[in-house]
Protein backbone atom coordinates (compact mmCIF):
# COMPACT_ATOMS: atom_id res chain seq x y z
CA UNK A 1 0.00 0.00 0.00
CA UNK A 2 1.32 3.44 -0.82
CA UNK A 3 0.55 6.31 1.52
CA UNK A 4 2.75 9.29 0.82
CA UNK A 5 3.89 12.07 3.04
CA UNK A 6 6.12 14.78 1.74
CA UNK A 7 9.44 15.35 3.41
CA UNK A 8 9.95 18.96 4.39
CA UNK A 9 12.96 20.92 5.63
CA UNK A 10 14.18 18.14 7.89
CA UNK A 11 13.81 14.47 7.14
CA UNK A 12 11.95 12.86 9.98
CA UNK A 13 12.63 9.35 8.79
CA UNK A 14 14.83 7.03 10.79
CA UNK A 15 15.58 4.05 8.62
CA UNK A 16 15.73 0.89 10.67
CA UNK A 17 18.41 -1.75 10.16
CA UNK A 18 15.70 -4.04 8.73
CA UNK A 19 14.72 -1.45 6.13
CA UNK A 20 18.34 -0.81 5.15
CA UNK A 21 18.85 -4.56 4.79
CA UNK A 22 15.80 -4.84 2.50
CA UNK A 23 16.85 -1.81 0.43
CA UNK A 24 20.25 -3.36 -0.34
CA UNK A 25 21.52 -1.26 -3.26
CA UNK A 26 18.89 1.11 -4.62
CA UNK A 27 18.20 3.94 -7.07
CA UNK A 28 16.24 6.97 -5.94
CA UNK A 29 14.94 10.29 -7.23
CA UNK A 30 14.62 13.69 -5.60
CA UNK A 31 11.51 15.50 -6.83
CA UNK A 32 10.55 19.17 -6.65
CA UNK A 33 7.06 19.25 -5.11
CA UNK A 34 6.29 22.54 -6.87
CA UNK A 35 6.12 20.91 -10.30
CA UNK A 36 6.61 17.20 -9.53
CA UNK A 37 9.76 17.10 -11.66
CA UNK A 38 12.74 14.92 -10.92
CA UNK A 39 15.88 16.98 -10.42
CA UNK A 40 18.31 14.35 -9.14
CA UNK A 41 18.78 10.62 -9.54
CA UNK A 42 21.11 8.78 -7.20
CA UNK A 43 22.28 5.27 -6.58
CA UNK A 44 23.38 4.13 -3.17
CA UNK A 45 23.47 1.58 -0.38
CA UNK A 46 22.61 2.56 3.17
CA UNK A 47 21.06 5.82 4.39
CA UNK A 48 22.87 8.32 2.14
CA UNK A 49 19.55 9.45 0.65
CA UNK A 50 18.98 11.26 3.95
CA UNK A 51 22.08 13.43 3.51
CA UNK A 52 20.83 15.63 0.66
CA UNK A 53 18.39 17.73 2.67
CA UNK A 54 20.42 17.79 5.85
CA UNK A 55 23.63 18.89 4.09
CA UNK A 56 22.14 21.35 1.59
CA UNK A 57 23.33 24.33 3.65
CA UNK A 58 26.93 23.12 3.65
CA UNK A 59 27.11 22.44 -0.10
CA UNK A 60 27.39 24.92 -2.91
CA UNK A 61 26.27 23.06 -6.02
CA UNK A 62 23.24 23.15 -8.32
CA UNK A 63 21.42 20.34 -6.48
CA UNK A 64 21.89 21.93 -3.05
CA UNK A 65 20.89 25.37 -4.37
CA UNK A 66 17.68 23.93 -5.75
CA UNK A 67 16.94 22.10 -2.49
CA UNK A 68 17.40 25.37 -0.55
CA UNK A 69 15.19 27.23 -3.04
CA UNK A 70 12.42 24.62 -2.72
CA UNK A 71 12.51 24.69 1.07
CA UNK A 72 12.72 28.51 1.27
CA UNK A 73 9.61 28.73 -0.94
CA UNK A 74 7.71 26.75 1.72
CA UNK A 75 7.59 23.58 -0.35
CA UNK A 76 9.23 20.20 0.07
CA UNK A 77 11.56 17.80 -1.63
CA UNK A 78 9.98 14.41 -2.25
CA UNK A 79 12.17 11.32 -2.03
CA UNK A 80 11.22 8.31 -4.15
CA UNK A 81 12.89 4.93 -4.16
CA UNK A 82 12.80 3.99 -7.85
CA UNK A 83 14.10 0.43 -7.45
CA UNK A 84 15.44 -1.30 -4.39
CA UNK A 85 16.71 -4.74 -3.51
CA UNK A 86 19.43 -4.65 -6.15
CA UNK A 87 21.99 -7.29 -5.30
CA UNK A 88 25.12 -5.38 -6.19
CA UNK A 89 26.48 -1.90 -6.75
CA UNK A 90 26.98 -2.47 -10.49
CA UNK A 91 23.24 -3.06 -10.99
CA UNK A 92 22.47 0.18 -9.15
CA UNK A 93 25.10 2.11 -11.13
CA UNK A 94 23.77 0.74 -14.43
CA UNK A 95 20.13 1.54 -13.65
CA UNK A 96 21.00 4.99 -12.30
CA UNK A 97 23.11 5.76 -15.37
CA UNK A 98 20.37 4.64 -17.75
CA UNK A 99 17.81 6.85 -16.00
CA UNK A 100 20.14 9.86 -15.95
CA UNK A 101 20.90 9.40 -19.67
CA UNK A 102 17.21 8.97 -20.47
CA UNK A 103 16.27 12.23 -18.75
CA UNK A 104 19.25 14.19 -20.06
CA UNK A 105 19.15 13.16 -23.73
CA UNK A 106 16.21 15.43 -24.57
CA UNK A 107 14.76 13.10 -27.22
CA UNK A 108 11.64 12.19 -25.28
CA UNK A 109 8.56 14.06 -24.12
CA UNK A 110 7.78 12.58 -20.70
CA UNK A 111 4.47 14.45 -20.54
CA UNK A 112 3.10 11.83 -22.94
CA UNK A 113 4.37 8.81 -21.02
CA UNK A 114 0.84 8.01 -19.80
CA UNK A 115 0.33 6.66 -23.33
CA UNK A 116 2.63 3.68 -22.71
CA UNK A 117 0.92 0.54 -23.94
CA UNK A 118 2.67 -1.94 -21.66
CA UNK A 119 0.09 -4.09 -19.90
CA UNK A 120 2.44 -5.08 -17.09
CA UNK A 121 5.05 -3.29 -15.07
CA UNK A 122 8.65 -4.36 -14.96
CA UNK A 123 10.06 -7.38 -13.18
CA UNK A 124 9.19 -7.31 -9.46
CA UNK A 125 6.97 -4.28 -10.11
CA UNK A 126 4.43 -5.28 -7.45
CA UNK A 127 7.07 -5.87 -4.79
CA UNK A 128 9.46 -3.06 -5.64
CA UNK A 129 7.10 -0.40 -6.98
CA UNK A 130 8.23 3.23 -6.84
CA UNK A 131 7.62 4.41 -3.26
CA UNK A 132 8.48 7.32 -1.04
CA UNK A 133 11.24 6.89 1.48
CA UNK A 134 8.71 7.00 4.32
CA UNK A 135 6.59 4.31 2.64
CA UNK A 136 9.65 2.08 2.36
CA UNK A 137 10.28 2.49 6.09
CA UNK A 138 6.62 1.74 6.87
CA UNK A 139 6.82 -1.39 4.76
CA UNK A 140 10.05 -2.87 6.10
CA UNK A 141 10.65 -1.14 9.43
CA UNK A 142 7.48 -2.22 11.20
CA UNK A 143 7.58 -4.74 14.00
CA UNK A 144 6.59 -8.24 12.96
CA UNK A 145 3.52 -9.57 14.77
CA UNK A 146 3.39 -13.17 15.91
CA UNK A 147 0.30 -15.21 16.83
CA UNK A 148 1.36 -15.05 20.48
CA UNK A 149 1.00 -11.24 20.38
CA UNK A 150 -2.79 -11.49 20.22
CA UNK A 151 -5.21 -12.32 23.00
CA UNK A 152 -7.95 -13.19 20.48
CA UNK A 153 -7.96 -14.78 17.07
CA UNK A 154 -7.05 -12.32 14.35
CA UNK A 155 -7.65 -12.36 10.62
CA UNK A 156 -5.27 -10.28 8.55
CA UNK A 157 -6.07 -9.24 5.02
CA UNK A 158 -3.45 -8.23 2.52
CA UNK A 159 -4.69 -6.00 -0.25
CA UNK A 160 -2.52 -6.65 -3.27
CA UNK A 161 -0.74 -3.71 -4.81
CA UNK A 162 -1.84 -3.48 -8.41
CA UNK A 163 -0.26 -0.26 -9.46
CA UNK A 164 0.40 1.00 -12.95
CA UNK A 165 2.49 4.10 -12.37
CA UNK A 166 3.61 5.54 -15.67
CA UNK A 167 5.46 8.55 -14.35
CA UNK A 168 6.10 10.12 -10.98
CA UNK A 169 3.59 12.89 -11.74
CA UNK A 170 0.84 10.28 -12.00
CA UNK A 171 1.46 8.81 -8.55
CA UNK A 172 -0.90 11.22 -6.80
CA UNK A 173 -3.99 9.53 -8.28
CA UNK A 174 -2.73 6.08 -7.29
CA UNK A 175 -2.01 7.30 -3.77
CA UNK A 176 -5.55 8.60 -3.38
CA UNK A 177 -6.89 5.25 -4.57
CA UNK A 178 -4.87 3.35 -1.97
CA UNK A 179 -5.67 5.86 0.77
CA UNK A 180 -9.36 5.15 0.16
CA UNK A 181 -8.76 1.38 0.31
CA UNK A 182 -6.78 1.84 3.52
CA UNK A 183 -9.47 3.98 5.15
CA UNK A 184 -12.17 1.48 4.16
CA UNK A 185 -10.33 -1.51 5.61
CA UNK A 186 -8.31 -0.25 8.58
CA UNK A 187 -10.95 -0.58 11.28
CA UNK A 188 -12.21 -3.70 13.02
CA UNK A 189 -14.76 -5.90 11.30
CA UNK A 190 -17.44 -8.17 12.73
CA UNK A 191 -16.76 -11.82 11.91
CA UNK A 192 -19.61 -14.27 11.49
CA UNK A 193 -18.32 -17.87 11.61
CA UNK A 194 -21.34 -19.01 9.51
CA UNK A 195 -19.84 -17.31 6.43
Show the helix and strand layout:
Blueprint: H1 17-23, E1 25-32, E2 37-45, H2 51-54, H3 62-72, E3 77-86, H4 89-104, E4 131-132, H5 133-140, H6 171-185
Antiparallel strand pairs: 1-2, 1-3, 3-4
Determine the number of helices (DSSP H or I, runs of at least 4 residues): 6
Please give the order of strands in the largest beta sheet.
2-1-3-4
Q: Give the strand content.
A: 5-15%
Order of helices and strands: HEEHHEHEHH
Number of domains: 1
**What is the 3D form?**
globular
Please give the number of β-strands: 4
Largest sheet: 4 strands, antiparallel
Mean pLDDT: 76
Q: What percent of residues adopt helix (DSSP H or I)? A: 25-40%
Low-confidence stretches: 1-10, 161-171
What would you call the structural class?
A: alpha+beta
Distance between the termini: 27 Å
Q: Report Rg.
A: 19 Å
Question: Would you mind describing this structure in some detail?
Answer:
The chain is an alpha+beta fold and 195 residues long. It has one domain (17-185). It is built from six helices and four strands, in the order αββααβαβαα. Strands 2-1-3-4 form a four-stranded antiparallel beta sheet, sandwiched between helices. A hairpin with a 4-residue loop joins β1 (25-32) and β2. α1 packs across α5 (133-140). The longest helix is centred in the middle third of the chain and has 16 residues, at 89-104. The radius of gyration is 19 Å and the shape is globular. The two termini are 27 Å apart. Residues 1-10 and 161-171 have low confidence and may be disordered.
